[in-house]
Amino acid sequence: MGKAQRIGTYVEDLDRHMEGGIPAGYTVLVCGPSGSMKSTFAFNILYNASRDSGMRGLYISMEQSKENLLDHMASLGMDASKAKNMNVVDMGRLRRELGKANSEDWFDTLYSQLKKYKKEFDCDILALDSLDALYALTVLKNPRNQLFHFFEDLRELGTTNLLVSEMPRNDVLFGKHGVEEFLSDGIIHLRFREIEIGRTPSVRRYIGIVKMRGTSHDLDYYPLLVEKGRFEIVVE
Ligand SMILES: Nc1ncnc2c1ncn2[C@@H]1O[C@H](COP(=O)(O)OP(=O)(O)OP(=O)(O)O)[C@@H](O)[C@H]1O
Ligand SMILES: [Mg+2]
């Protein structure tokens, strides 16, 4: 068997530090506190994969409306109309389509819907933004068990999945229920760190690959720069 195809992160220099990117078919957590660019990072991958290699992406935005999301991305130089193979479904639509599934089999209903989306959009990459917003739609009676099955289902779907996960600042859990990090194939952590410039306190963005199965990568956190719609890390 040949080596798995890799999906680039489109963060300049980062892919070189992880054997070319995320192995296709993986389910990866994109974690960080508010404002750490989780949504932008995930969108950036779908946007560029669509433009570069015609890969098809579906971005499911559960927190921001489609309009708000696309405005934000446009302000960062990503004009969604230039990425023909990328689609966005927002909360309003997903809620409508999920209907009134009871919480017992809620994840099953969600999975059926994701399968329908996969068929409709024929997508290779799926971004789910965010897991936490998803949790807010249902009551998880047995999170460990339900999430185990949900992650299995995501694998079954055959797409590469980017799951956005919110981390309160200074928290150490990469997912709300503490099991997401074990269930995922990879963890990309976006974080802030306080620095001082002269006597002025400030924060800087950092990115680290905490886990990527089957991949040689280091555990350094690299300063992350976002300029003119381009992500870049600073390697010392
Ligand atoms: N045009 C721009 N150029 C550079 N940075 C920007 C621009 N517009 C917004 N930002 C930065 O992007 C941040 C938001 O990015 P993004 O929405 O991807 O973060 P997030 O981690 O998904 O946040 P949340 O948890 O609130 O969803 C803003 O807090 C701001 O610092
Ligand atoms: Mg976001």
Task: Throw out a few tags for this protein.
236 residues, alpha/beta, 10-stranded mixed sheet, 7 helices, globular, binds adenosine-5'-triphosphate
Describe the 3D structure.
- The protein is α/β, with parallel strands linked by helices and 236 residues long.
- It has a single domain (25-190), classed as 3-Layer(aba) Sandwich (Rossmann fold).
- Helix content is 31%, strand content 30%.
- It has helices spanning 38-53, 66-75, 91-98, 106-121, 131-135, 143-157, 180-183; strands at 6-7, 11-12, 22-23, 27-32, 57-61, 86-90, 125-129, 160-166, 186-197, 200-212, 221-227, 230-233.
- It has a ten-stranded mixed beta sheet, sandwiched between helices.
- Helix 4 runs parallel beside helix 6 (143-157).
- It starts with 5 loop residues before the first strand and ends with a strand.
- The mean pLDDT is 93.
- Bound molecules: adenosine-5'-triphosphate and magnesium ion.
- Residues 32, 34-40, 63, 72, 75-76, 166, 226 line the site of adenosine-5'-triphosphate.
